[in-house]
Design goal:
Blueprint: E1 7-9, E2 14-15, E3 24-28, E4 33-38, E5 42-48, E6 56-61, E7 68-71, E8 77-81, E9 86-91, E10 100-104, E11 112-119, E12 122-127, E13 130-137, E14 142-150, E15 156-159, E16 164-169, E17 175-182, E18 185-188, E19 192-193, E20 212-217, E21 220-227, E22 239-244, E23 252-258, E24 265-270, E25 273-278, E26 283-287, E27 299-301, E28 314-315, E29 329-330, E30 338-341, E31 345-348, E32 353-359, H1 362-367, H2 371-378, H3 385-397, H4 404-434, H5 455-466, H6 474-490, H7 497-509, H8 513-521, H9 529-537, H10 545-556, H11 560-569, H12 573-582, H13 591-600, H14 604-622, H15 634-644
Parallel strand pairs: 23-27
Antiparallel strand pairs: 1-32, 2-32, 3-4, 4-5, 5-6, 7-8, 8-9, 9-10, 11-12, 12-13, 13-14, 15-16, 16-17, 17-18, 17-19, 20-21, 21-22, 22-23, 24-25, 25-26, 28-29, 30-31, 31-32
Helix pairs in contact: 2-4, 3-5, 4-6, 6-7, 9-10, 11-12, 13-14, 14-15
Length: about 650
């Protein structure tokens, strides 16, 4: 079972102090920072973030119990709430005079529920009567109200990634009013209603913040509602309902995730997967909303994989009591002291740790038997390349041979992603070269994700070793290679010559020359210079390969030099000369190269014919049959005189 833990806590968690001397621990979702606040005389604060740059310790005057504390982006300004009416500000701007100020909320009789930094100097107060958007002015040591909105607020939720605040309104709390913030502007988005489950009268159900999470999935903002059904209903099992919240337009209910159980749940989003933790069973399940049922307008999803617990985690002993021989202490998973934050953070207040939740892909391979569905799942994950390649190798090499239809499905899915990347790259290149990418609408270079598996990857990690398998039928190997080539051709990707070479090598190795001939005759193997050269090398084994190679080079039309070289290498001097004349290149060819080969044949009449051809060319081009010194044909002129006499040389025509 240990191999099947597909979720794990990160190896290097953020560790923070949570001893009895610490009064309060706060978490800032925007900066991913934990604040440990200790009171007594002066208030000591230790801030721990994901790296040392975000870690800081300081003291401030004790002006009462801290209710909320957060740094602005970049740790430039600290905001501290101690009363329901105001927020205090302390400057941490480097090389800038120290200053402090306080800001009361503008709305009369309002109580501040909390605040959110939307920029390094922009902050939103959320009160029970609405929201107030401020700009901090360090030079003036004050705040300026940019905009406010009155609305009765029960509670709020903030998504730092998109700078969207969600306000719960109405008596039942299920009408949500979103606001978006960007560069000093506040935009009111369309409000929407969360459908609450039906409960027997006179009972009433209110929506609480424990039931809601906000996160970005596949680049879109979603509100996730953890819906608990009444036990009196036909299906009392809980579900997660997703509402997509676009920047423009109304929010719509898009997905339902079936949990198939009841109890206490918590939500994370990791690598675009919705992770649902179930406390009583101490297991987690994952959902991928892109794995959808095509026939449903509203997508209903079952878990992608069976539920498994997070991989066991051991906490190393530290401090003066730590002894090197003492083993690490097992961490209590799914503890009641755990707090879960979006998108992928788990905090254990009792143990003083902040972890990032991670997905491990290798264990998913054996849990998801449908190879097509497995590929759809893996292709959308980070760090998926080597796992996908290992699945392909396993599918072909082991007892897991799924047959050609499965192989074809996998290749098609991989090459579709490959093609989309190549098209995006080509569009970017064309736009860049034509200058259309300049200006405000500049096109960004497409990012090559780990999901792009090109021909080189497939050849190096899968097909090359697969083609050498001794315990696998050569017919199956050839069929797989041709299936991959078919898949590439289907999406119009130019097949690299080394894949054709693998096929030809297999065909020759098993004396399947008739099949090789057919593949070439019907252009199943596309023409290329490297392929033509490979065919030439096969001539001793398969004599027709020489003519097949020449035919291929002729079809390429850009391989004239190669054809001449091939013919000369076989001492077919007249054939080479006839070919080069047929394509009109005879005025530029090297006379010495042809005369060298003609002389090597020891056929004097052939040498005479070739020599006379070049004399006539010289006369036509320069008015003299003599060779220029730069052509280095002196030794051939001497040989001609020796064999045929000086009188046989062409005479210059005088007018």
């Amino acid at each position: 079972m240990s191999e099947e833990h597909y979720l794990e806590l990160c190896e290097n968690p953020v560790q923070f102090e949570n001893t009895s001397s610490v009064n309060n621990v706060f978490f800032d979702e925007a900066n991913k920072q934990v604040f440990a606040v200790r009171s007594g005389g002066a208030t000591g604060v230790v801030v721990k973030g994901p790296d040392d740059k975000n870690s800081v310790a300081f003291r401030m005057d004790d002006k009462g119990e801290v209710k909320c504390i957060k740094f602005s982006i970049g740790n430039k300004i600290l905001a501290v709430q101690r009363t329901p009416k105001s927020v205090d500000f302390i400057s941490f701007i480097p090389d800038y005079p120290h200053w402090e100020c306080s800001q009361e909320c503008k709305m009369k009789n309002a109580s501040i529920l909390g605040f959110c930094w939307t920029n390094w100097n922009e902050i939103v107060f959320i009160t029970d009567q609405g929201i107030e958007f401020y700009q901090v002015l360090p030079d003036k040591r004050s705040l300026k109200l940019l905009k406010s909105q009155s609305v009765n607020v029960n509670w709020y939720m903030y998504c730092p990634e998109t700078a969207v605040i969600l306000l719960s309104t109405t008596a039942q709390g299920n009408v949500l009013q979103p606001f978006a913030f960007k560069s000093g502007t506040m935009s009111k988005m369309p409000k929407f209603e969360i459908e609450l489950p039906v409960v027997p009268k006179p009972a009433k159900l209110n929506l609480t913040e424990r039931d809601i999470a906000v996160a970005t999935i596949y680049g879109q903002l979603y509100v996730m509602y953890l819906k608990h059904h009444s036990r009196t209903t036909d299906s009392p099992c809980a579900e997660v309902v997703l509402y997509q919240l676009p920047r423009e337009g109304s929010c719509k209910k898009t997905n339902v995730l079936k949990l198939n159980t009841t109890g206490k749940f918590a939500l994370n989003v990791v690598d675009n997967l919705v992770v649902v933790h179930h406390q009583s069973s101490q297991t987690s399940i994952i959902f991928d909303i892109k794995l959808r049922e095509p026939d449903c307008a509203l997508n209903v999803h079952q878990p992608v994989l069976p539920g498994r617990s997070i991989h066991p985690y051991r906490i190393p002993l530290t401090g003066p009591a730590a002894v090197p021989t003492h083993p690490p202490v097992p961490c209590e998973l799914y503890s009641s002291s755990w707090s879960v934050f979006q998108p992928d953070i788990i905090i254990s207040a009792s143990e003083g740790y902040l972890w990032y939740l991670q997905v491990k892909l290798p264990p998913t391979v054996n849990l998801l038997q449908d190879k097509g569905k497995l590929m759809d799942f893996l292709l959308r994950r980070r760090d998926c390349k080597m796992v996908i390649l290992s699945v392909c190798a396993q599918m072909l090499n082991g007892g897991d041979k799924g047959g050609l239809p499965v192989v074809a499905t996998v290749f098609d899915k991989l090459n579709q992603v490959y093609k989309e990347y190549l098209e995006a790259e080509q569009t970017y290149t064309v736009a860049t070269e034509s200058g259309t990418s300049r200006g405000s609408s500049a096109r960004e270079r497409p990012v090559r994700t780990r999901a792009v598996i090109d021909q080189s990857d497939m050849y190096t990690h899968v097909l090359s070793s697969f083609s050498e398998k001794k315990d696998t039928s050569h017919k199956f190997i050839i069929a797989v290679l041709m299936e991959y080539i078919r898949s590439l051709n289907q999406v119009q990707i130019t097949v690299q010559h080394y894949l054709y070479e693998l096929v030809i090598k297999m065909l020759v190795q098993h004396n399947l020359f008739y099949m090789l001939h057919q593949f070439l005759q019907y252009h199943v193997l596309s023409d290329s210079k490297p392929l033509a050269c490979l065919l030439l090398s096969l001539e001793s084994t398969y004599p027709p390969a020489h003519q097949l190679s020449l035919d291929m080079l002729k079809r390429l039309s850009t391989a004239n030099d190669e054809i001449v070289e091939v013919l000369l290498s076989r001492q077919q001097v007249l054939g080479a000369l006839r070919f080069i004349r047929s394509v009109g290149g005879h005025d530029n060819i090297s006379a010495r190269k042809f005369l060298d080969v003609a002389r090597q044949t020891a056929d004097q009449m052939l040498f005479y014919t070739i020599f006379r051809f070049f004399e006539q060319r010289n006369l036509r081009l320069r008015g003299s049959p003599s060779f220029n010194p730069g052509e280095h044909c002196e030794e051939h002129v001497v040989y001609f005189k020796q064999v045929f006499g000086e009188q046989a040389l062409m005479k210059q025509v005088t007018v």
